TrEMBL record, chain B:
This is Response regulator transcription factor. Transmembrane segments: none annotated. It comes from Acidovorax bellezanensis. Residues 124-218 form the OmpR/PhoB-type domain. Residues 2-116 form the Response regulatory domain.
Length: 464, 219
C-alpha cells in the first residue's frame, strides 16, 4: 500500500506557509491602515502645536518689537535683532506693520515686503509661509509672525518615516513568530499523518487521539471508525478467501475424481460407456460448484453495484420475472405464489434491477430452502413501494432477528454462502437507500417469517 | 425442426450442438453476429438460441433480421442468471423466451419442445375480453397492454376458462385444473383463485353462474 504522492509538476502548498502568508498579509494590511490613521492624527497634532507656538510668541513679541520702530525720517523697515538662541536653529520670522500695511520692523530672516497684501487677525497661508497676524489697537500696529511651510513639512516627514521604519523592523519578527506558532500548532497534524501512514493491512490499530486538539481528535475518531469497518471487512474477506478456495476446490476435485474413475472403469471393462452412477455424481458435484460460484459472483456484484447505474425499476415486472424464473424449479412450482398489487400500473423505484433481482432471489431462495411451507411474493404500492417475501415456515426466534443481516462465515458448517445470502441482501438494500423490515411470526399466526424491502417512491419514470 | 445456435464460446457451442443433434434436431452454429445475420436470411429456422454477448455486438441486434423473415423463428435469449435487465430487454425487444446460463440440457429441450408445439398449432388462439387479452398459444396474458404474470395455479384456471370461452365450467372441472398443483384444493381454494384472477384482470372478466360454476364474460 503506497501513500498517494502529489504530482511533481504541481507542488501542494504547505499549511504552515499558507497560514503564515495569509496571517502576515492581514497583519501588514491592518498595520498599514493603522499607520495611515496615526500619521494623519500625529500630523494634525504637529500642525496644531506649531500654530500654538506661533501665536504664543506673537503675543510675546508684541511687547518687544515696537521698541525697534525707527524714528521719523529713518529708513524703514528697521531690522530687529533677535537674541542668540542655541536651542532653535530656525530664525525668528516677524514683521511689524502700520495701518497702511507698510513693514516698519522686520527680523533679519523676514522679507522686506509684507507677507500678506491685506491685514486681518488670525492664521493665513501663503505659498511658502504660515502666517499669524495680531493687531494692537492701542498702538495701532499689526504684528505678523510666520513659520516656513518647509519647516513644518520636515517635522511631519521625520515623524512618519520613524513610524514606517518601526513597522519595517517589526514585520520580520512578527513573521517569525506567526510561523513558529503555526508550526507548533500544526505539529499534531504531522503526527496524525504519520500515524495513519503507519497503518496497513496488518496494522489496523486505532490511532491515539487523546493529546490532540478537539478538531483533530474528531478527525482521528472518524479515521478510527473507518479502520474498524475496514478491519471487519478484511476479516470477512480473509475467511471468505480461505473458505472460497476450499469450497470451490472440493467439488472440482470430486468431479475430476469421478470422471477419472468412470474412464478407468470403462477402460478396464472395455465397455463403450461410463457407469451412470459416476456420471451422476460428477454432475452433482458440478451443480454444487455452480451454486457456490454463483454466491461468490453475487457477493462481488452486490459490493460493486454503483449508484451511477440506477434507473427506474418496475417492482411488478421485477417480481413477476423472478417468480417465473423460480417456477422453472420443481420445488417452487407448487409452493411459490405471486401476488401482484391492485391495478396494472407499474410500481416504480430507483435502482439497479440486476442487484435488486439478486436480493429478491436470495430472499426467495432462503424461504424455499429453509422451510417446506408455502411462500408468498408480493409487491405493495402504498404507503410506499415494497417487495414482500412471506413464508409460513417455523419462523425465526425474536432474539435472532436482529442478527440475520450480520455478515459471517459459518465456521461450524464450513458451507460457503450460508450466512452470506442475507448479508448480500443487506448491502444491496443499503446501496438503494431502502429499508429492510423483518417480522416473525407473521401478523396473523404463530409462525412464519416476513421480509419487507421498503423503497422511496418514484412518482413517474424518468426513463425515455 | 431446424435451429440456429448463436454462441461464441467454442466449448459450450460444441456441447450444445452435440446434445441437440443427439436429440434429432438440425442445428447450425454461428459464432458471431455477422455470420448469424447472413444465416438467418438463408435458411428457414424454427428457433434461434441467442447468446447476447457476441464478439461483434449485442445479440439483440439480430432480432430485426429475424423478424423480417416471412416466417420468423422463435427466439430464445440466453443470459447470465444475474442479468435480469438483459432478460427483460430481450423480451421487450421481441424475444419469445429466455434461458439462464448455466442451464440444464433438459430445460433447453423443454423450451425447444414448447416452441415446436406452438409452431404446430397453426392458428394463434388469442381470447380478447375488453382490455384483457389471453394468448393461449404463447401463454401470455395482457391487461391494458401490460403483461400480467400469472402463477401456475392462476394460469391453470384461466386456461380452462379461456380455452372454451363460451362454455360454463362446473366447479368440479375447475377444481380438477387446480388439483394438479395442490392436492389439498377444496372449494374454498377455488373461490380464492377466482377472486385473485378478478383482482388481476378486472372483476367483470369472470362471471359466476349460480349453482353451476363460472364462465368467461361474453365478448
Amino acid at each position: 500500500m503506497s501513500a498517494p504522492t502529489p504530482a511533481a509538476d504541481a507542488p501542494q502548498p504547505s499549511l504552515v506557509s499558507s497560514l503564515t502568508r495569509s496571517l502576515l498579509a492581514a497583519v501588514v494590511l491592518v498595520w498599514a491602515l493603522g499607520t495611515v490613521l496615526v500619521a494623519w492624527y500625529v500630523n494634525y497634532q504637529i500642525q496644531h502645536n506649531f500654530d500654538f507656538e506661533l501665536s504664543e510668541s506673537a503675543h510675546r513679541q508684541l511687547f518687544v518689537a515696537p521698541m525697534y520702530i525707527p524714528a521719523a525720517g529713518e529708513e524703514i523697515p528697521a531690522v530687529m535683532h533677535e537674541p542668540p538662541d542655541t536651542v532653535h536653529d530656525a530664525p525668528l520670522l516677524l514683521q511689524l506693520r502700520d495701518l497702511q500695511g507698510r513693514v516698519l520692523v522686520r527680523t533679519a530672516a523676514a522679507p522686506e515686503t509684507g507677507w500678506t497684501p491685506s491685514l486681518a487677525e488670525g492664521f493665513s497661508d501663503t505659498d511658502n509661509y504660515r502666517v499669524f497676524t495680531l493687531y494692537d489697537p492701542a498702538k495701532q500696529l499689526w504684528l505678523q509672525m510666520a513659520d516656513t511651510r518647509e519647516e513644518r513639512r520636515e517635522a511631519s516627514r521625520n515623524t512618519l518615516s520613524g513610524l514606517v521604519l518601526l513597522l519595517l523592523l517589526i514585520l520580520p519578527v512578527l513573521a517569525f513568530i506567526i510561523r513558529w506558532v503555526a508550526r507548533r500548532q500544526l505539529r499534531s497534524l504531522g503526527d496524525i499523518q504519520a500515524q495513519i501512514q503507519a497503518r496497513n493491512g496488518r496494522n489496523l490499530e486505532p490511532l491515539r487521539t487523546t493529546h490532540y486538539p478537539l478538531e483533530l481528535a474528531q478527525v482521528g475518531l472518524g479515521v478510527n471508525l473507518l479502520l474498524d469497518r475496514l478491519q471487519e471487512a478484511l476479516n470477512v474477506e480473509r475467511s471468505l478467501a480461505a473458505n472460497a478456495a476450499h469450497e470451490l476446490r472440493t467439488p472440482l476435485a470430486s468431479v475430476r475424481l469421478r470422471l477419472h474413475t468412470a474412464i478407468d472403469q470403462a477402460e478396464a471393462t472395455a465397455a463403450a460407456s461410463v457407469p451412470l452412477s459416476e456420471a451422476k455424481a460428477a454432475l452433482q458435484a458440478l451443480e454444487t460448484l455452480s451454486h457456490r460460484t454463483e454466491r461468490l459472483l453475487q457477493l462481488s456484484r452486490a459490493e460493486a453495484g454503483d449508484t451511477a447505474r440506477f434507473a427506474p425499476v418496475d417492482l411488478v415486472q421485477l417480481a413477476g420475472t423472478l417468480a417465473q424464473e423460480f417456477w422453472q424449479q420443481p420445488r417452487a412450482l407448487k409452493r411459490l405464489d405471486w401476488i401482484a398489487p391492485e391495478g396494472h400500473e407499474p410500481v416504480w423505484v430507483l435502482g439497479d434491477i440486476d442487484s435488486l433481482a439478486i436480493a429478491l432471489r436470495n430472499l426467495l431462495d432462503n424461504a424455499l430452502t429453509h422451510t417446506q411451507a408455502a411462500v408468498e411474493l408480493s409487491v405493495e404500492r402504498s404507503p410506499q413501494p415494497a417487495l414482500v417475501v412471506r413464508d409460513h415456515g417455523p419462523g425465526v426466534p425474536t432474539a435472532q432477528l436482529p442478527h440475520i443481516l450480520e455478515r459471517h462465515v459459518r465456521a461450524d458448517s464450513q458451507r460457503l454462502g450460508y450466512g452470506l445470502g442475507m448479508s448480500i441482501v443487506g448491502s444491496i438494500v443499503q446501496k438503494h437507500g431502502a429499508r429492510l423490515e423483518l417480522r416473525s411470526p407473521l401478523k396473523d399466526g404463530s409462525q412464519g417469517l416476513e421480509v419487507r424491502l421498503k423503497f422511496a417512491g418514484l412518482s413517474a419514470p424518468t426513463a425515455d | 425442426m431446424r435451429i440456429l445456435l448463436v454462441e461464441d464460446d467454442a466449448a459450450l457451442a460444441s456441447a450444445v450442438l452435440g446434445y441437440l443433434q443427439g436429440k434429432q434436431f438440425l442445428v447450425d452454429l454461428a459464432t458471431n453476429l455477422g455470420q448469424a445475420r447472413s444465416m438467418v436470411s438463408l435458411a428457414g429456422y424454427s428457433a434461434v438460441l441467442l447468446d447476447l454477448n457476441l464478439p461483434d455486438g449485442d445479440g439483440l441486434q439480430l432480432l430485426p433480421a429475424i423478424q423480417a423473415q416471412a416466417e420468423p423463428a422463435s427466439v430464445i435469449v440466453v443470459t447470465a442468471r444475474d442479468q435480469v435487465s438483459d432478460r427483460i430487454r430481450g423480451l421487450d425487444a421481441g424475444a419469445d423466451d429466455y434461458l439462464i446460463k448455466p442451464y440444464d440440457p433438459e430445460e433447453l429441450l423443454a423450451r425447444l419442445r414448447a416452441v415446436e408445439r406452438r409452431r404446430s398449432q397453426q392458428t394463434s388462439s388469442v381470447v380478447v375480453r375488453g382490455e384483457v387479452s389471453i394468448d393461449l398459444t404463447r401463454e401470455v396474458v395482457k391487461a391494458k397492454g401490460f403483461p400480467v404474470v400469472m402463477t401456475p395455479k392462476e394460469w391453470a384456471l384461466l386456461r380452462v376458462l379461456a380455452s372454451r370461452a363460451q362454455q360454463v365450467h362446473s366447479r368440479e372441472r375447475l377444481l380438477d385444473a387446480l388439483y394438479q398443483w395442490d392436492d389439498s384444493s377444496d372449494s374454498n381454494t377455488l373461490e380464492v383463485f377466482i377472486s385473485r384472477l378478478r383482482r388481476k384482470l378486472g372483476t367483470s372478466l369472470i362471471q359466476t353462474v349460480r349453482g353451476i360454476g363460472y364462465r368467461l364474460a361474453p365478448p
